[in-house]
Write a structure and sequence with these properties.
InterPro entries: Ribosomal_mL40, Ribosomal_mL40_metazoa/plant. It is built from four helices and no strands. It is mostly helical. The chain has a domain of 59 residues. Helix 2 packs across helix 3.
Length: 115
C-alpha cells in the first residue's frame, strides 16, 4: 500500500508545473486585467439598466399627463404574456432524505456579570 502511495506522489510531483517568476507575473497581470474587464462590463450593465428604467418612468409620466386612461391601461399586467408564460422545473426544492435537522439545543457561552 505504501509503495502505491509513494508512486502516486512521485507521479504528481513529476507533472507539477514549475513557473518562472516572469510567467507568474504575466499571469497575475492578465488575471487583474480580466477582472477589471469584468468589472467594467458589470458597471456598464448596471448603468444601462438604470437608464432604461429611468426612460420607462419618464415615458409613463408623460403618458399620464397626456392620457390618464392610457396610463392606467399601461400599468395593467399583459394577459397575453401571462397566458403564454410556461415555467418548467421544480417549484419547490425537495427535502434531502437523509438530512436530520438540529434539535435546537445550544450551549450558552455568554458571560455572567455580577451586579
Amino acid at each position: 500500500m505504501e509503495l502505491k502511495k509513494a508512486a502516486s506522489i512521485c507521479l504528481n510531483e513529476m507533472f507539477y508545473l514549475q513557473l518562472s517568476e516572469d510567467e507568474k507575473d504575466e499571469r497575475a497581470a492578465l488575471e487583474m486585467e480580466y477582472k477589471r474587464y469584468l468589472n467594467k462590463l458589470a458597471v456598464m450593465d448596471t448603468r444601462w439598466i438604470a437608464k432604461s428604467v429611468q426612460k420607462q418612468e419618464n415615458a409613463l409620466q408623460k403618458l399620464k399627463m397626456l392620457s390618464p386612461e392610457l396610463y392606467k391601461a399601461a400599468l395593467e399586467p399583459d394577459e397575453c404574456f401571462l397566458q403564454n408564460f410556461v415555467y418548467r422545473g421544480p417549484t419547490l426544492t425537495p427535502p434531502i432524505e437523509s438530512y436530520e435537522p438540529p434539535d435546537g439545543h445550544y450551549i450558552d457561552v455568554s458571560k455572567k456579570w455580577l451586579c
